TrEMBL record:
<dbReference type="InterPro" id="IPR035897">
    <property type="entry name" value="Toll_tir_struct_dom_sf"/>
</dbReference>
<feature type="domain" description="TIR">
    <location>
        <begin position="6"/>
        <end position="91"/>
    </location>
</feature>
<protein>
    <recommendedName>
        <fullName>TIR domain-containing protein</fullName>
    </recommendedName>
</protein>
<dbReference type="Pfam" id="PF01582">
    <property type="entry name" value="TIR"/>
</dbReference>
<keyword id="KW-0520">NAD</keyword>
<dbReference type="InterPro" id="IPR000157">
    <property type="entry name" value="TIR_dom"/>
</dbReference>
Amino acid sequence: MSSHQWKHEVFVSFRGKDIRKNFISQLFHELNHAGINYFSDEDRENDGEEIKDKLFRAIWHASFALAMFSANYADSKWYPNELVEILKCRG
């Protein structure tokens, strides 16, 4: 058994307002309803911290990562870096 202390059960990687307002908000609602702790980039903890540091720490301290690929996911300069970080800590 690992002694690692997970801060979140799930980290969800996604891009875009298009899926945030529909699919992701419903996913977060269902995770919350099921009592599953997930990371939300709208979390105000450690406000003022660089978003990159906040996201990468959340990735490393989540038990599971879920990447939601949408039509615009790969168009971003940021999200491929997030995906690489997920793969680093899961590999």
